[in-house]
Design goal:
Elements: E1 2-6, E2 10-17, E3 20-27, H1 35-57, E4 66-70, E5 75-79, E6 84-85, H2 91-110, E7 113-114, E8 123-126, E9 129-132, E10 139-140, H3 144-161, H4 166-181, H5 183-198
Antiparallel strand pairs: 1-2, 2-3, 3-5, 4-5, 6-8, 7-10, 8-9
Helix pairs in contact: 2-4, 3-4, 3-5, 4-5
């Protein structure tokens, strides 16, 4: 096993599953929590994430296959997608793919799923297909406010990590998103994004 990412909630390792390359995600023990409560929370989140990865496939969202779930170790073994994170692609490629990403997010929202961690690192391009990964913070939600939070985060990421191409990428993202959710819902969500930005604790992204 090889550690590839240390996160606040979980660590990711490269491993093997029946001779296939795989990713092992292990949720971390939080020592500041009561140990029984901590285990309960980690088990719940492990179950929820594995279910969500499978659920969104039924909407046509490309995600890693779930190979094995170990609740005692609060871990998931899943397919490794050997492509490149969108974050690491060329600027022209990111601009082009932003429309596809918008369509994927629109499909999630249309089917009542909030991703919860929409960053360009959580979209992987493999064989001309964009895969969505890391559903650790996802939840079932039809609330427009939750969907607006998703859009606000991806907008913030584009502005901070891809500032030079933010305007073009965001425009393409919104076009893709609108093509899935429709004009009325798109208008509602983008207004909510503006409302979120107008609150004091958020800096507005132009």
């Amino acid at each position: 096993m090889k550690l590839i990412k240390k996160g606040a909630e979980a660590d990711l390792y490269q491993t093997k599953w029946q001779n296939s390359n795989a990713i092992l995600k292990i949720r971390k023990i939080k020592t500041y929590r009561n140990s029984l409560l901590d285990l309960k929370i980690r088990k719940h989140r492990t179950i929820k994430e594995s279910q969500m990865l499978s659920l969104v496939k039924s909407f046509g969202i490309p995600t890693p296959l779930v190979y094995f779930v170990n609740l005692d170790k609060t871990s998931i073994i899943m397919q490794e997608i050997p492509g490149k994170p969108v974050h690491d692609l060329s600027e022209s490629k990111i601009i082009k793919l932003s429309s596809d990403i918008g369509k994927l997010v629109g499909t999630l929202h249309k089917n009542g799923v909030m991703h919860g961690d929409l960053t360009t690192s959580n979209f992987i391009l493999f064989h001309n297909t964009v895969f969505v990964i890391d559903f650790g913070l996802s939840q079932i939600s039809i609330k427009p406010e939750d969907h607006a939070v998703d859009l606000r985060l991806i907008k913030e990421i584009l502005n901070s990590a891809h500032a030079k191409i933010m305007a073009s990428s965001w425009k393409n993202f919104l076009n893709g998103y609108k093509s899935i959710v429709g004009h009325a819902y798109y208008t509602k969500i983008t207004k909510l994004v503006s409302d979120i930005e107008s609150r004091g604790r958020y800096a507005q992204v132009v």
